[in-house]
């Protein structure tokens, strides 16, 4: 059972209700809720909620770590095996679409391409045209002959990887991590509240975080003086609260900035899922439990 959705759409509450109903185990698929330092500001399940159903992969990573989708796949695999061995139902829930895509489609092992190589290939693409680069690519990598000569994006990507690594893109894909779940056999729902309702939920949740101790939580985090580029340091609301702790802005400005950041992020979540998780069922939060019951 896979439950995704934008921030503040009610994913955790739905997962908990479902877990209690079917005896499931809730497994985190949110890249921020893995951090132990950020329970309040990431709206992690409360201790009271965690005793109502089994919860896995929440709050077990230190904020000093640069957590990744590859690490999550390695962590979630044994959890899924354990739940299945106990004849249980894993309920994966979170707002990180890339986690779900990697779970159901696998993950490529292609290393990052240096910016200077990417820029050089893109410049050649504009100057020489895709057909010329396609011809060069095929002479160096026979597997790329399946690409259409005018497919600018794929030609550029294949040539970038070849230049950067000395190996064809197909070799990297063949060595990638396979999917852990069969997407065709999984129940997959994306919670899609009305936009006005989602904005209301975002505002209410951020206000509740501030009342619930988010400032003290971030004060402890800030005292560690970690690299500001670490993922945990960029969680929604964290940079704004750190600025407040430095005396730069008011709490009212924190609230407005955090809410605006979250709204912009949810727009990107909708767009990403629409293009990358095309086979998911979009449902209104208030209708989701009934639709899942019918699907199960």
Topology:
Layout: E1 2-4, H1 11-22, E2 24-28, H2 47-50, E3 55-56, H3 69-85, E4 89-94, H4 97-105, H5 115-128, H6 130-140, H7 152-165, H8 169-174, E5 188-191, H9 195-211, H10 214-223, H11 238-245, H12 251-276, E6 281-283, H13 285-295
Parallel strand pairs: 1-4, 1-5, 2-3, 2-4, 5-6
Helix pairs in contact: 3-4, 5-6, 5-7, 6-7, 9-12, 10-11, 11-12
Structural account:
This protein has a six-stranded parallel β-sheet with strand order 3-2-4-1-5-6, with helices on both faces. The chain has helices at 11-22, 47-50, 69-85, 97-105, 115-128, 130-140, 152-165, 169-174, 195-211, 214-223, 238-245, 251-276, 285-295, and strands at residues 2-4, 24-28, 55-56, 89-94, 188-191, 281-283. Helix 9 (195-211) crosses helix 12 and helix 11 (238-245) runs antiparallel to helix 12 (251-276). The model has no long low-confidence stretch (mean pLDDT 94). 54% of the residues lie in helices and 8% in strands. It has two domains: 2-107 and 179-295, P-loop containing nucleotide triphosphate hydrolases (Rossmann fold, 3-Layer(aba) Sandwich); 115-174, Histone, subunit A (Orthogonal Bundle). It starts with a strand and ends with a helix. The protein is α/β, with parallel strands linked by helices and 296 residues long. The relative contact order is 0.16.
